[in-house]
Specification:
It is built from 19 helices and 25 strands. By secondary structure, the chain is α/β, with parallel strands linked by helices.
């Protein structure tokens, strides 16, 4: 039984049990197995009437919704390859991806998404449909529960476009075998986290389903005894999270950093005994983590656990067993902050090409600052320049219509990730940076910018991003975005540079008030820096930094 057949069977067994729900205008709308199958049935009928057949592509451009999940299941059940797209991405970029994969149908969540794409399509636009056209009968109509058509391990089920940090996005083809293996791994880890509880997992989700990690979480929840609550309104995320009261949910570091900053700000504003207890307990915990525990540390930690930490935990999520975090490096301080509160942060590392995951923290053995051991059934090692190499059933078969690019990353049976890493004696991995991001000074020194950027950002409250430049130059310089003042950056660099070897010191900087974003084209769809685009957009400012130092 493949993953899709398993999901359909579970939906048929959960006819009256909620499996998906979403919050709209403060109300929780639940869909049980019977209702989800009804939506899937309606979508399958529409796709067949539209003439789509096995191997055709169907682009899916919509915000998270129960109907998104239903259409995804419906298309895969007919052997149609789903191409999920990010609804907030620039229309021109979206059209470029769709022209690359040539979909037979483009399904949009609403009129505005459809019209934005149609307006700039320079050639014949493919057939387009809205959710309202497909799901005209609503969610209460029961389908026949017809099983998916037979699919083999090598049959593709989705094409997910890479974020394009350093070039044109490429379509990553993932097949049935990839999903089968990955869902077995994620289910195994969640079984360890949840133990033997008979009730369904309560899961909360706000990240777009078009990202590989989000898609795997959605399929994992549908594959096990779980109810997934979908946030559809980011400004209401905190309220929706409280309403869902989840056992766990998937995060990116940005949200956890904001949650940590919000708790810290509230404690500072409150002041008094609560702030004193928290500050002393946090310092005690850090000393314990560093192996430098003092005599009074146990007292402060006990006091924090009794009087302060439970209230903070309840404000974040009263039932949380863990936070799951991926997509980018998480600051060790932030991971320790949540562990201090009694909320483990389980890190995941992977790429779209690895079906989202290569490593996962074991729920009972977390090493802060590392991303856990390799998932069962795959191999990992380092190659030249400490590049992480992976092979196993989670590795994608290739990029859509790009044989040369596929051959460049799939060599001798190993996928070359482009990430630098190191592994300890217990098999836990630490991610250092991206090889393509390496800055090579004219002195010959190779510098991974990410650790320096993360640390400087940590020292600059109010800053949004820090980007280092200096490839081929004599020294490093920084671009800093957000609400931060010139003297503040100077002071931070004065102390930071003293801790660094001479070739890693940052000797110039430029302040940029407007943060980099998806909308201004300087962040990828999943929030990663588009370094080449940033360098091109700010070429004059970068040259100015170096000219000023030479003058």
């Amino acid at each position: 039984m493949n993953f899709l057949e398993n999901i359909f069977q579970r939906l048929r067994q959960s006819t009256e049990r909620p499996v998906l729900q979403q919050v709209q205008e403060g109300k929780l709308l639940s869909s049980n197995g019977r209702q989800v199958l009804g939506l899937v049935h309606a979508a399958r009928e529409f796709l067949l009437q539209a003439g789509l057949k096995k191997g055709d592509r169907c682009a899916l451009l919509a915000h998270n919704d129960v109907r998104w999940a239903a259409l995804d299941l419906a298309a895969m059940a007919e052997g149609i390859i789903v191409v999920p797209l990010y609804a907030r991405q620039a229309a021109r970029e979206l059209v470029g991806m769709m022209k690359d994969c040539a979909p037979a149908l483009v399904v949009c969540g609403d009129f505005s998404l459809r019209d934005s794409v149609s307006a700039i399509w320079s050639s014949e636009v493919p057939r387009m449909a809205l959710f309202e056209e497909i799901f005209v009968r609503g969610s209460g109509v029961a389908g026949d529960g017809r099983p998916p058509i037979p699919l083999g391990d090598s049959d593709p089920v989705t094409i997910i476009y890479t974020s394009g940090t350093s070039g044109e996005p490429k379509g990553v083809v993932l097949n049935v075998g990839n999903a089968n293996h990955m869902l077995g791994c994620t289910t195994g880890r969640l079984d360890l986290l949840m133990g033997t509880t008979p009730r369904p997992d309560r899961v909360f989700h706000y990240l777009p389903f078009c990202f590989a990690g989000s898609w795997i979480l959605l399929l994992t929840c549908l594959s096990r005894n779980a109810v997934l609550t979908i946030n559809t309104d980011l400004p209401r995320l905190v309220q929706d999270l409280q309403r869902a009261a989840p056992d766990y949910f998937l995060n990116v570091p940005t949200l956890l950093e904001r949650m940590r900053a919000g708790v810290s700000d509230q404690l500072r504003q409150r002041g008094g005994l609560a702030l004193k207890i928290f500050s002393n307990a946090a310092s005690a915990y850090l000393r314990r983590h560093q192996g430098k525990a003092g005599l009074a540390d146990s007292f402060w930690l006990a006091l924090g656990n009794r009087l302060v930490f439970p209230k903070i935990r309840d404000s974040i999520g009263r039932n949380l067993k863990a936070l799951i975090c991926g997509s980018a490096p998480l600051a060790v301080e932030t991971q320790l902050f949540f562990i201090l509160l009694g909320i483990p942060v389980l890190q995941v590392y992977g790429l779209t090409e690895t079906t989202a995951i290569c490593t996962m923290d074991h729920p009972h053995h977390v090493e802060p600052g590392k991303v856990g051991p390799a998932i069962p059934g795959i191999e990992m090692k380092t190659g030249e320049q400490d590049e992480i190499l992976v092979r196993g059933p989670n590795i994608f078969p290739g990029y859509w219509n790009r044989p040369q690019e596929t051959a460049e990353v799939l060599r001798d049976g190993w996928f070359h990730t482009g990430d630098q890493g190191e592994v300890d004696a217990s098999g836990h991995w630490r991610i250092i940076g991206r090889i393509k991001n390496l800055l090579i000074l004219n002195s010959g020194h190779n510098i991974a910018p990410e650790p320096l950027e993360d640390e400087l950002l940590r020292r600059l409250p109010g800053a949004q991003q820090v980007v280092l430049v200096g490839n081929g130059r004599g020294y490093l310089a920084a671009i800093v975005t957000g609400e931060v003042a010139h003297p503040q950056v100077e002071a931070a660099l004065d102390t930071f540079n003293q801790e660094l070897p001479h070739y890693q010191r940052i000797r110039a900087f430029h302040l940029c008030a407007e943060p980099f974003s998806v909308e201004n084209g300087l962040l990828t769809a999943n929030g990663k820096l588009k370094r080449e685009a940033i360098a091109a957009r700010l070429a004059g400012e970068i040259e100015g930094m170096y000219r000023a130092r030479q003058a």
